[in-house]
């Protein structure tokens, strides 16, 4: 994959030096949505559900469709595109207990992307394909709720917190616009190898959400420090919104 990215960047630089005619660009704001894919968090949920199997009324509902906001800007030099993007994305999941309460998990992702690729920019529309380096954070907010809606931060104290970690990764994206409307699709890939510590809670000093929950409860001191949820939230993201296209006449 690294070799592919290197060839891609060489091709982009080649085109950019060959032609700088047709200066253009655009700004857009859109609604971002998609189905999240978080492997290490799924491992935590599986272990948690197994540990409380006799107390659970309903299994995890499954990730809701993620939703959020995206702000994009880019410049086009001939067929070469450079862009800067910011996006927010959130979703939730929960499990219900026979006691009447429920545990909730709210996932959050904030990303800043520096993108390069190929594209066309006109006065009434654009089309482009880019790859981007991503930086930001993945976070899970966890709490227990009673039937009357009260949120508890007492029982299972290590699970009641905001677990967050730095996220570094990359993505591939295609988008187009017609007049003032744009649509985009992007695949956010997992974290870069060797970058990104497990999610933790600085306030409680917790090491994070254990992927083998039963083993962690049995002996949290001896539990391996590498067996926690990591910032590897990825998957397809879609965007719909408004774009201002700018191009030389």
Comma- or semicolon-separated keywords:
about 250 residues; mainly beta; 8-stranded antiparallel barrel; 3 helices; elongated
General description of the model:
The chain has 249 residues and is mainly beta. 14% of the residues lie in helices and 51% in strands. The chain contains three helices and ten strands; from the N terminus they run αβαββββββββαβ. It has helices at 2-18, 39-51, 213-218; strands at residues 23-34, 56-58, 66-77, 80-97, 102-121, 125-145, 151-152, 161-178, 181-188, 235-247. An eight-stranded antiparallel beta barrel has the order 1-3-4-5-6-8-9-10. The longest helix is centred in the N-terminal third of the chain and has 17 residues, at 2-18. The two termini are 39 Å apart.
> Strand order across the biggest sheet?
1-3-4-5-6-8-9-10
Give the overall shape, derived from the CA principal axes. Answer: elongated
User: Uncertain spans, ≥5 residues at pLDDT below 50?
Assistant: 10-20
The gyration radius over C-alpha positions equals 21 Å
Task: Report, as a whole number of angstroms, the end-to-end distance.
Answer: 39 Å
Query: What percentage of amino acids are in beta strands?
Result: over 45%
The portion of residues assigned to helices is 10-25%
The major pleated sheet works out as: 8 strands, antiparallel, barrel
pLDDT averaged residue by residue: 83
What is the H-and-E element order?
A: HEHEEEEEEEEHE
Number of helices: 3
Per DSSP E runs of 2 or more residues, the count of β-strands stands at 10
Structural class: mainly beta
Task: Describe the structure concisely.
By secondary structure, the protein is mostly beta strands. The protein has helices spanning 2-18, 39-51, 213-218, and strands at residues 23-34, 56-58, 66-77, 80-97, 102-121, 125-145, 151-152, 161-178, 181-188, 235-247.
